[in-house]
């Protein structure tokens, strides 16, 4: 490892202590040491004359910015900071370094950070212990494991030249209901003609050795056993493998434990089924390489197992069948630096599984290979000073390795100025305290800013009388407590709000407000009265003396029509209004207002022709030849109005009106623009031609209508003529030429003519 102050990869370690800090002003710290333990931002003002009348000793403790604002010199603010020193940095071989870091750390202060560098060693020694389930279901697996020793030794030579291997087996607790306890089943738990060995909990078959042939020989002598339930007692075996270092032969090197099974596992609490209620004690109980206390102690819990595996730097590889992959993957998440591999039904792939799992457990950081250097950023912080402020030691090491970093924590629990304290100082009322860091630290039983009282004298009537203003009834104006005849003002929920004064009759939060802001946000409140900032006045500092807000576009204050009061224009003429008195709803426009005066002075005409000299001399008149010579707005740094007006003869005249440097200027085009008279002949000719054309058009329309009417009548006649069918007798207009008359009869005689 290598210790430095740069950063690359973050690993945060928090030194957790009991207690929780609070805001500086609320902590009621009575000494500098108490103050700096509140929070990182808290400081103590050691200026002897810092406190005002009525302020308690704890008012010296405040956040750094507040102390500066309260006029405490930076040199007199106690705010010690932590540091870190590399005390020892020694190479141990294998590209690893042993480091001791000493850190001065302030409780509730800033974290102390240093960098740790780790490089995975080449040819690092490895101890591998193969722990196998020998229940009956693993019968075919045992055959494939018998040659594991030499084959695995050969494969591991690619990784390290210093490799050792061991072997152990497990079945189950030797009590009901896990196994059958009948005499016959205790000798041979298997049914039928199967020859099985007696059940056992855990057996260490072979200590770690570098001889693969010994592994093959002893493993080949092993026999399958049996039990009744499906979960196995593997946790008992793992616990013994972890804690029995001497029996197993573990070295201080990389330790790998391969756990091979095709079943689940029992854990803490399951022992009650067999009447076992004592928790696992986590100690070694091997006699003649056999676990002898399985009937006495319950299975270990997962947390207990994790602790022991971590304490002994053992990395676990779970080689399990596909069926139990989900269970052991969940278990892997609880055990640091463990891995899970899928075991074939007959364990034929066990060597590949071990190699792959070893590479996985060794490369927790992605893309990191042997020889690559990894940096960790270690950050340590303390929540509270330990008892008697004794140093504490933290050890940091990677799982699976024995090399470590030792961090010695020295806690900053007092200020440097405390070392210069004056015990039994005369400044502390006849030596009743130690004068340190600008204040008295009272002896036991003494109180007061100067330790002038004992605790028994605090509530006496004589002393209370000194805390009543003008012999009134309220003690410390009901805003404080009378301590030793002196008012110590109460603290508010808001640390920024403070009571002060000899009788706590002043405060900094009951001043006049403007826009819901204390002193309008433009001053500070002292003893209930606003002290305004520069350029502000008024009881609430809401009156600005700045006149820039009253400047009109023409550069005048309120357009010359009012006064600027508190940054706002007060128009003297009531007909004007607006931010700068520029608006006059009842006034004519600028052009209409000056039209008559411009007309009389430039052209000696208009309604004010006779009174021109008297009424129209308020501006300077300048004549120009044409409109192009009039001033343009883009050329001026003052307001300018362009005007176009008409006189009584319908002639147009053009001018501009402006106020420059309090001088009113009028530029006018010297020639009127009158409309030309009408041309009579074209007008008359046009009118006559129009009348003629209109008459012709009307005649043509009438003629066209008559032609259309005649054609319709003629067509109707022709149609009736074709449909006529009569002769002379039936002719309705035929009249016979013969007339017959009858004379009057005379004697019934008739005469014919």
Automatic annotation (TrEMBL):
It is a single-pass type I membrane protein. Pfam families: EGF_2 (PF07974), EGF_integrin (PF23105), I-EGF_1 (PF18372), Integrin_b_cyt (PF08725), Integrin_B_tail (PF07965), Integrin_beta (PF00362), PSI_integrin (PF17205). SUPFAM superfamilies: EGF/Laminin, Integrin beta tail domain, Integrin domains, Plexin repeat, vWA-like. The chain crosses the membrane at residues 680-702. Its main location: membrane. Residues 31-415 form the Integrin beta subunit VWA domain. It is found in: Cell membrane; Cell projection, Invadopodium membrane; Cell projection, Lamellipodium; Cell projection, Ruffle membrane. Keywords: Calcium, Cell adhesion, Cell junction, Cell membrane, Cell projection, Disulfide bond, EGF-like domain, Glycoprotein, Integrin, Magnesium, Membrane, Metal-binding, Myogenesis, Phosphoprotein, Receptor, Repeat, Signal, Transmembrane, Transmembrane helix. Residues 591-679 form the Integrin beta subunit tail domain. Residues 23-73 form the PSI domain. Disulfide bonds join 32-42, 35-72, 45-61, 190-196, 244-284, 385-643, 413-417, 428-440, 437-476, 442-451, 453-467, 482-487, 484-519, 489-504, 506-511, 525-530, 527-558, 532-541, 543-550, 564-569, 566-612, 571-581, 584-587, 591-600, 597-674, 616-651. Residues 1-21 form the signal peptide. InterPro entries: EGF_extracell, EGF_integrin_1, EGF_integrin_2, Integrin_beta_N, Integrin_bsu, Integrin_bsu_cyt_dom, Integrin_bsu_tail, Integrin_bsu_tail_dom_sf. GO terms for cellular component: cell surface; focal adhesion; integrin complex; lamellipodium; melanosome; ruffle membrane; synapse. GO terms for molecular function: C-X3-C chemokine binding; collagen binding involved in cell-matrix adhesion; fibronectin binding; integrin binding; laminin binding; metal ion binding; protein kinase binding. Residues 703-748 form the Integrin beta subunit cytoplasmic domain. Coiled coil: none annotated. It comes from the Eukaryota. One of its GO terms (biological process) is cell adhesion mediated by integrin. Belongs to the integrin beta chain family. PANTHER family: INTEGRIN BETA, INTEGRIN BETA SUBUNIT. This is Integrin beta. The gene is ITGB1.
């Amino acid at each position: 490892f290598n210790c430095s102050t740069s950063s690359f990869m973050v690993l945060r370690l928090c030194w957790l202590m009991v207690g929780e800090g609070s805001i500086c002003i609320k902590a009621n710290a009575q000494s500098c040491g108490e103050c700096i333990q509140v929070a990182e931002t808290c400081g103590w003002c050691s200026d002897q004359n810092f406190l005002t009348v009525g302020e308690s000793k704890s008012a010296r403790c405040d956040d750094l910015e507040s102390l500066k604002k309260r006029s405490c010199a930076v040199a007199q603010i106690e705010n010690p900071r932590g540091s870190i020193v590399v005390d020892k940095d020694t190479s141990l071989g294998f590209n690893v370094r042993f480091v001791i870091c000493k850190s001065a750390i302030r409780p509730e202060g800033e974290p102390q950070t240093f960098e740790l560098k780790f490089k995975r060693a080449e040819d690092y020694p490895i101890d591998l212990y193969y722990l196998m389930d020998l229940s009956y279901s693993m019968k075919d697996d045992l055959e494939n494991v018998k040659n594991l020793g030499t084959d695995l030794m050969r494969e591991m030579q690619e990784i390290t030249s210093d490799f050792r291997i061991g072997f152990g087996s497990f079945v189950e607790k030797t009590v009901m209901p896990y196994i059958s306890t009948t005499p016959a089943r205790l000798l041979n738990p298997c049914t039928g003609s199967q020859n099985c060995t007696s059940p056992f909990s855990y057996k260490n078959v072979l200590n770690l050795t570098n001889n693969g042939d010994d592994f093959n020989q002893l493993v080949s002598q092993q026999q399958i056993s049996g039990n009744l339930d499906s979960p196995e007692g593997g946790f008992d075996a793992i616990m013994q493998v972890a804690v029995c270092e001497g029996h197993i032969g573990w070295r201080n090197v990389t330790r790998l434990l391969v756990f091979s099974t095709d079943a689940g596992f029992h854990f803490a609490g399951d022992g009650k089924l067999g009447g076992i209620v004592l928790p696992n004690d986590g100690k070694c109980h091997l006699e003649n390489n056999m676990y002898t206390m399985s009937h006495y102690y319950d299975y270990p819990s997962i947390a207990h197992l994790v602790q022991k595996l971590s304490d002994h730097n053992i990395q676990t590889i779970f080689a399990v069948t596909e069926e139990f992959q989900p269970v052991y993957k969940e278990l892997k998440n609880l055990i640091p630096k463990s891995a899970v591999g899928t075991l074939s039904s007959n364990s034929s792939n066990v060597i590949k599984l071990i190699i792959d799992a070893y590479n996985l457990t060794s490369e927790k950081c992605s893309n990191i290979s042997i020889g690559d250097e990894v940096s960790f950023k270690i950050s340590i912080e303390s929540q509270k000073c330990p008892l008697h402020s004794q140093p504490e030691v933290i050890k940091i090491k990677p799982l699976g390795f024995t090399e470590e970093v030792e961090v010695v924590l020295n806690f900053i629990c007092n200020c440097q100025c405390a070392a210069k304290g004056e015990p039994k100082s005369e400044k502390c009322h006849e030596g009743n305290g130690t004068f340190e860091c600008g204040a008295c630290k009272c002896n036991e039983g003494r109180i007061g800013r100067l330790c002038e009282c004992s605790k028994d004298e605090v509530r006496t009537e004589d002393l209370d009388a000194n805390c009543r203003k003008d012999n009134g009834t309220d003690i410390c104006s009901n805003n404080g407590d009378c301590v030793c005849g002196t008012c110590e003002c109460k603290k508010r929920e808001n640390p920024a709000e403070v009571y002060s004064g000899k009788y706590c009759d002043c405060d900094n939060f009951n001043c006049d407000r403007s826009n819901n802001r204390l002193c309008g946000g433009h001053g500070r409140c002292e003893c209930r009265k606003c002290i305004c900032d520069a350029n502000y006045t008024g009881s609430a500092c809401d009156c600005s003396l700045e006149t820039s807000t009253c400047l009109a576009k023409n550069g005048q204050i309120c357009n010359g029509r009012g006064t600027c009061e508190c940054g706002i224009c007060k128009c003297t003429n009531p007909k004007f209004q607006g931010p700068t008195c520029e608006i006059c709803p009842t006034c004519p426009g600028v052009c209409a207002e000056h039209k008559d005066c411009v007309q009389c002075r430039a052209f000696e005409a208009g309604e004010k022709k006779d009174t021109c000299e008297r009424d129209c001399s308020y501006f300077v008149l300048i004549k120009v030849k044409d409109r192009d010579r009039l001033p343009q707005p883009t050329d001026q740094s003052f307001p300018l109005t362009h005007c176009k007006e008409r006189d009584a003869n319908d002639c147009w005249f053009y001018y501009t009106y402006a106020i420059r440097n309090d001088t009113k200027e009028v530029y006018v085009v010297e020639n009127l623009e009158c409309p030309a008279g009408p041309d009579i002949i074209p007008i008359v000719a046009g009118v006559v031609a129009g009348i003629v054309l209109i008459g012709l058009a009307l005649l043509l329309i009438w003629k066209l209508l008559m032609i259309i009417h005649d054609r319709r009548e003629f067509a109707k006649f022709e149609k009736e003529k074709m449909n006529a069918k009569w002769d002379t007798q039936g002719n309705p207009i035929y009249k016979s030429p013969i007339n017959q008359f009858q004379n009057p009869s005379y004697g019934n005689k008739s005469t014919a003519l």
